[in-house]
What we know:
This protein has 15 helices and 24 strands.
Amino acid sequence: MFSEYRSKFVTPEVAAAKAVQSGDWVDYGFGGGFPELMDKALAARKGELKDVKIRGGLVIRPRIEVVECDPEQESFSYYSWHIGDYERKLQSRGLVKFMPMILRFLPDLYRYHIRVDVAFVPVSKPDDKGYCGLGISNYAWRTIFENARTVVFEINEHLPTLHGVEGSHRVHLSEADYIVEGEHEPLPLRSYKDPSEIDIAIAKNVVKEIPDGAVLSLGVGGVPFTVAKMLADSDLKDLGCWTGTISDAFLALHNAGKLTNKCKEIDNGYSTWNLAMGSQELYNWINDMPHLFHPGDVDYVHAPERMGSMSNFVGIMGGVQLDLMGQENAESAGTRQLSGIGGQLDFLEGAYRSKGGKGFICLNSARKDKEGNLKSNIVPFIPGGSVVSAPRTMIQYVATEYGVAKLSGLTVYERAQAMISVAHPQFRDELAKYADEKFR
Length: 440
C-alpha cells in the first residue's frame, strides 16, 4: 500500500540508533500524545549516548523511560514546558528542568530561538494515501518537525484518526525520515474528582455571567468541568468551543445538545482545539465524529486576535493566588513549580479583545495548610519566590465562592476593594487594613 515509503519503516531500535546523536535535543511533544515506543528504544541506549536533552510537557502517563532508566542523568536529561502530575513527582527527585513559556510563542521559539535536532511525533494509522492524523496532540508539531534535522513518526493504533479541517491535523508519511509502529498501551486518561461544595459555589457564580451563544475556553480542572455540567443542565443554548484542551467538559455539553457552535464567527459549526485530554469516551467521540471538530496548531488556536474576532468569548481558568492589585500566580508555590502558564495569557487576552468577552480566574478563597491552618488565596502581594503568571492589567474577572469581582477599569484601590469582597471573610479585615495603608 505504501511501497514508495516502505524503506522508511524501521524498528524503534533502528530509528533511535540512526536518529539520535550525543548532544542532541529531542522533542517528545505535549499532553496525552506520547512517543512510547521511541522512548523505550532511546532509553535502551543509556551509557552509549551522552548529553541528550529531552523536551516535553504536561505528561499524564505514569513513566518516561529515558528519565527512569537514568536517574544519574549520565545520558539523558529531561526538560518540561509545563509540569504535569507525573512531572511533579520527577521534580521532587530532581529529574526535571522547567522552562517557562507562553504557549502562543512556542512556535516562534522553535522557528527562531531554540534548537531542535530530532522530533518523535505520535501519529494515527495512515489512510490509503499515506496521510496520518496527529491524534490527541496537534501541539506545535508541524513547526517543530519542519525545523528538525531528523523526524520520526510513531504510528499509534489507539489514536483518533481525524485529519482536521482542510488538513489542519494531518501529516504525510513522506514528511518523516523514519516511521515506526508496534503495539501500544491504551491512551492515558484524565479523570475528574467529584466537585467540592466550594467548586459548586464558584461554578454557580460564573454560570450567571455566561450568555446564550458564548464561545467557551475551559481550562482543565474541577471548576471548569463543574461549570460545563451546570451549563448542560441550564436553559442556555448554542454554546461554542474554542479551547486549548478539549476535555470531557465539552463532551458533557455535546451530550446535552448545548454545543452547537452555531454562533461562532470563525469555525462556525466546529469545536476548535489544540490538545485533547480526558476519558476514553472523549477520544471515541473525536474519532467517531470528526466532522464536528477543527483541531489546529498553536499558531491557529492560541491567537488572541482570532479569539477576539468572535463575540462573547468566555475563558474560564484556574489560579493559585491573586493579590489585591489583581496580579495572579497560576503556577507555583514559592519556587516550586506546580504547572505552567501554558495558554492562560492567550485566552485572557482573547476574552479582552472580544465583544462581550469575559475572562475568569477561578479559585478557592482560602486553603488549609499541612497543619490544618486556614490560609487566604487572596493576599496583599504575591510573595517573593512565587510567580506572577498574569499581570494585573490582564485580569478581568476573579471568581471565588463568595462572588465575582470585575477588575478592568478600576483604580488600584478600587481593585483592592473588589478583591476583598470575594476574599474569605476571616481575612477581609487584614486585607482592608493593608489596602488602606498602601493604596489610598
